[in-house]
Amino acid sequence: MKRVHPVIPDRIMNRLVLCSSVLLLLVQISCNHATESIPVEPPYPPLQAMTIPWTDQNSIVCFGTSLTYGFGAGEKTPFCKDKGPTGTRAEYIHYSTEQIIRLTSAHERQMTALHKKDGSCSSCTGDSSYPRFLQELLNIKVYNQGYTAARINTGLDVLQDSVLSKRPVLVLLEFGSNEFLQNVDVQSADSLLRLLVQQILTYGSKIVLLSFVNPDMAQYMDQGNWTTQDSIQAAAYYTMLKGVAGRFTLPLIEYPLKGVFGHPELMSDQLHPNGIGYKKMAENIYYALILTFRNSGMLR
Q1: Is the pLDDT confidence value at 96 over 70?
Q2: Closest C-alpha among 300, 278, 292, 296 to residue 141
Q3: Element counts in the chain: helices (H) and strands (E)
Q4: 168-174/59-64 β-pairing
């Protein structure tokens, strides 16, 4: 017996075709948006999402040392001249507060030694710090409270005026590098960092720790300026930061300089990125926290 297929009226067929087209378009838009938010191979693997009670009255504060401040890029370095390094300088001025930071003579000699290479900096115009680039990615207010040559006790001294007064809902905390460079005992740095973290948490802000050191970095250091003891000390500071993150259950971005450190075209000296490098650093932080930003409505 011959099978007879039902005939679908044209008007119903047109509706089915239209609905299918709309559905496919919505799926494509959704996929495209997801791809733009998190690439198939993100620059930095996303961390587990936090829940942040974000409102437009809140802010993000980036709090730390010269890596937060943006030393080595834009107009934020006294060495950023047409002919390269110009000599030592006893004082540095904080970018946003104009506070004068005076360095010790030992640190001054160390900073001068790091700026021996000739040539001008990359991106010697404007603010090329990672907080500036992060603000552009998020399109919400991000404060740069980085202090050149700052140590953790500096952070404790200026915490209220520099950070808490900004009503931060999230603090990106990057401290300890100068203790490491100045051979401060890691236990002392640990105690001070725990105190700083506790005070910020007591205020009610969420914290993400940024590690200034990663085991991968040692391979890029000039062997004439890097010793076995430096490697041991770096490992101790890296372990300390992981310990603080674990104690307070904080997200830790273990390598914000991934893909930057050790790449001469992205560095202004052996320790600090140039403008392009800080942009890459901001992208690493952005993608590390993309799930938090998305879930908390912080993407604009």
Answers
A1: no
A2: 300
A3: 10, 7
A4: parallel
Q: Does position 42 have pLDDT exceeding 90, yes or no? A: no
Q: Tokens at residue 178, please?
A: 């100068």
What's the number of domains the chain is made of? 1
Question: How many other CB atoms are found less than 10 A from the CB of residue 53?
Answer: 10
With respect to residue 270, please indicate whether it lies within any of the assigned structural domains: yes
Looking at the domain assignment, is residue 69 inside a domain? Answer: yes
**Helical spans, DSSP H, in 139-213:** 152-162, 177-181, 186-203
In terms of pTM, does the model score above 0.85?
no
Task: Pick the range with the lowest mean pLDDT from 69-73, 108-112, 128-132, 215-219.
Answer: 108-112
- At 200, list the tokens: 């910020």
Residue closest to 272 by CA, chosen among 125, 111, 63, 107: 111
Question: Is 20's pLDDT higher than 90?
Answer: no
- What is the domain range of residue 153? 59-295
- CB atoms under 10 Å from CB of 31, counted, come to 10
Locus of tokens 């700083």: 196
**Cα separation, 128 vs 200, whole angstroms:** 27
Distance CA 157, CA 138 (A): 29
Token pair recorded at residue 48: 């587990």
Report if residue 17 sits inside a domain.
Answer: no
Specify the CATH number for the domain of residue 260: 3.40.50.1110
In a domain, 5, yes or no: no
Please tell me the predicted confidence (pLDDT) of residue 74: 67
